[in-house]
Write a sequence for this structure.
């Protein structure tokens, strides 16, 4: 056979998809006629179909060497360079083909594709439109026109382009998926879902369509169904890292944080440099109260991407939970340095400044947040909190009312208004605000706590106890509600029963048992604030005294004082301890000096100084005339001084003579302060989900 016959045979074999045989035929043709340019071009096509792109590129370059004006060879070269990721060179090859043949529609299409790969979407769009203008009725041209329009955020036009691609090829699965994506960008999630389902109907094994179906379902708050879609996508492609990540997000929204954690860890296993997955892992760990582990995950995300502002924010939240407020403050400041308009970081910065007692700076941070976004209700709330701490109550009222004006469902702002009214002695207004808060959220713990305290003021102790018990149930592990419940029950017993009544003593015994359990729990938890243990020990001291166990009462109050909690309860504890020691235990005068529970070492030093002075005066008086013959000693005054020092030494016993039974009023627990909480991490997770999806789409 001659060169043309081998060439024609190669073309026929290629049309049948028998590319290995076609390749051999073209090589036979070239062997006969090495200058046969069409044979070189078709050899390139066959090699390309066999995914031997480097060899295909060489075949096209040989064709160009033979005939530099052969447009199809330049087109083929552009195609192979694109497949090899060499997009700038591919673009130049397509432009050369167009220069040779300005009406070469496929070359315009190739040029548009490469411009898109290089992120030049306006130019890509023009190239695709040029190909369409030349009546190139390829579904792919319309598809990539749609892609370019989508990248340019011209979503309505993009949808029309995808519809045209689908009209040409109703089974064009990628066009259905991309149509769904642009519908999603227009918040038409129901329509987007239908487009994804059509793509899945065409190809049930198309993992990406299932992934996007999950995205649409998530937007529609159908998280269980979204989860199933992500799981199906992962089943088809176990290495689909984005599906693993989104599976974790869906599980987080369903509050299945342990399972979410596993999904994020799978995503990290697939791609250890996936900063968003490390961030999400940290959020899940935070939800599980594993703040130290969460902190490590955030630090890993920061190591991967030091400019990830949301991770610095999340790190601040974790550090705040660990009571590391100085470090938390630095993390929020870093988030603000990266993103100066990050309003939530400004709010949380203010919260940490408040916890550090820097209320003026906290106020400035909240005002900066308001300056950035005047409609951000949490910023107004934060401003109100700072103003309360500064004692500027009128301004605080205005800030809380502003927060409520912008968000009438802001239950916590109503609670703070109630707290303020309660502090100012306006029980009626406080009650109304608490009622409003609980109408919005009947499980709001700060509102329930305030409701209980209002009921105590109204002497409705049973209702108060009910509020505190509900708060205890909702805020497990927080001893404040427990202490307030005990306080309410004690007041009820105090005002309704005689202290000698058996029922009264039983109530005191029950309170002591419950307090001992709480004390044991707190002593095991090193992270608990000293404040709570101090109050529990003070309460125990008081109630042991009520039950006439004065030595145990002394022991508990000593424990309270030794904590050095710097709380308002420390002074009453010292006072009660002093009263028990002086008037109930009545120690001998020497024990009073040597074993005092308060200022023990000062008293011991004083005791030994007094003893030394007395013995010195008694032992040295015979020698004084000999040592100082000219000195005139008033021996009566000398004797009086010795007696005076002895009286001081034994004065504790004299004090006990006038001792009487003591009755000390029980101080109330500290109020449950609904101070500024960190902005809910769930909100930040939603933002990350949206940002990551946009990033994923950009990569497509």
């Amino acid at each position: 056979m001659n060169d043309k016959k081998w060439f024609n045979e190669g073309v026929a074999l290629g049309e049948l998809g028998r590319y290995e045989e076609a390749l051999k035929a073209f090589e036979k043709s070239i062997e006969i006629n090495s200058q046969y340019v069409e044979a070189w071009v078709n050899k390139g096509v066959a090699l390309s179909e066999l995914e031997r792109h480097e060899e295909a590129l060489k075949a096209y370059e040989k064709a160009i060497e033979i005939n530099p004006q052969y447009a199809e060879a330049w087109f083929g070269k552009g195609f192979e360079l694109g497949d090899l990721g060499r997009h700038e060179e591919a673009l130049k090859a397509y432009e050369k083909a167009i220069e040779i043949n300005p009406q070469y529609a496929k070359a315009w299409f190739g040029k548009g594709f490469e411009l898109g790969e290089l992120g030049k979407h306006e130019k890509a769009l023009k190239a695709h439109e040029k190909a369409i203008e030349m009546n190139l009725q390829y579904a792919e041209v319309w598809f990539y026109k749609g892609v370019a329009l989508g990248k340019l955020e011209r979503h309505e036009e993009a949808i029309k382009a995808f519809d045209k691609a689908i009209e040409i090829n109703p089974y064009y699965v990628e066009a259905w998926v991309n149509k769904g994506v642009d519908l999603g960008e227009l918040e038409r999630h129901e329509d987007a879902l239908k487009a994804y389902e059509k793509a899945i109907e065409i190809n049930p094994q198309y993992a990406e369509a299932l992934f996007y179906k999950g995205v649409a379902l998530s937007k529609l708050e159908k998280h269980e169904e979204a989860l199933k879609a992500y799981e199906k996508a992962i089943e088809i492609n176990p290495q689909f890292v984005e599906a693993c990540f989104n599976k974790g997000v869906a599980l987080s929204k369903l509050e299945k944080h342990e399972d979410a954690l596993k999904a994020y860890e799978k995503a990290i296993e697939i791609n250890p440099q996936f900063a968003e997955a490390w961030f999400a892992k940290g959020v899940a760990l935070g939800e599980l109260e594993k703040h130290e582990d969460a902190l490590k995950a955030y630090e890993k995300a920061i190591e991967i991407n030091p400019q990830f502002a949301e991770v610095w924010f999340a790190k601040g939240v974790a550090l705040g939970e660990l009571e590391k407020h100085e470090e938390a403050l630095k993390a929020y400041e870093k988030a603000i340095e990266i993103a100066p308009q990050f309003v939530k970081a400004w709010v949380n910065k203010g919260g940490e400044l408040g916890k550090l007692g820097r209320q003026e700076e906290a106020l400035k941070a909240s005002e900066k947040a308001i300056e950035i976004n005047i409609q951000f209700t949490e910023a107004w709330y934060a401003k109100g909190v700072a103003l309360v701490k500064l004692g500027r109550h009128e301004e605080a009222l205005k800030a809380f009312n502003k927060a409520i004006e912008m968000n009438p469902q802001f239950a916590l702002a109503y609670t703070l208004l109630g707290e303020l009214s309660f502090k100012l002695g306006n029980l009626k207004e406080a009650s109304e605000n608490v009622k409003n808060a609980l109408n919005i959220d009947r499980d709001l713990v700060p509102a329930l706590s305030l409701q209980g305290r209002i009921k105590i003021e109204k002497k409705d102790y049973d209702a108060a106890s009910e509020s505190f018990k509900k708060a205890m149930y909702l805020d497990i592990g927080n001893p404040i509600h427990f202490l307030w419940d005990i306080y309410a029950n004690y007041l009820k017993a105090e005002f309704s029963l005689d202290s000698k009544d058996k029922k009264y003593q039983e109530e005191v015994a029950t309170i002591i048992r419950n307090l001992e359990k709480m004390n044991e729990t707190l002593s095991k938890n090193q992270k608990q604030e000293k404040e709570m243990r101090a109050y529990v020990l003070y309460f125990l001291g008081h109630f042991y005294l009520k039950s006439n166990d004065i030595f145990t009462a002394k022991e508990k109050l000593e424990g309270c004082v030794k904590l050095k909690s710097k709380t308002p309860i420390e002074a009453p504890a010292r006072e009660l301890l002093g009263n028990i020691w002086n008037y109930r235990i009545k120690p001998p005068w020497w024990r009073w000096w040597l074993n005092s529970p308060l200022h023990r070492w000062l008293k011991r030093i004083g005791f030994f100084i007094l003893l030394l002075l007395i013995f010195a005066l008694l032992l040295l008086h015979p020698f004084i005339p000999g040592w100082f013959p000219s000195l005139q000693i008033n021996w009566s005054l000398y004797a009086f001084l010795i007696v005076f020092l002895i009286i001081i030494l034994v004065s504790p016993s004299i004090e006990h003579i006038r001792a009487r039974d003591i009755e000390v009023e029980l101080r109330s627990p500290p109020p449950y302060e609904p101070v500024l909480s960190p902005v809910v991490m769930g909100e930040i997770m939603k933002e990350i989900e949206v940002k990551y999806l946009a990033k994923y789409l950009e990569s497509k």
In short: The radius of gyration is 41 Å. DSSP finds 38 helices and no strands in the chain. Residues 585-595, 675-680 have pLDDT under 50 and may be disordered.
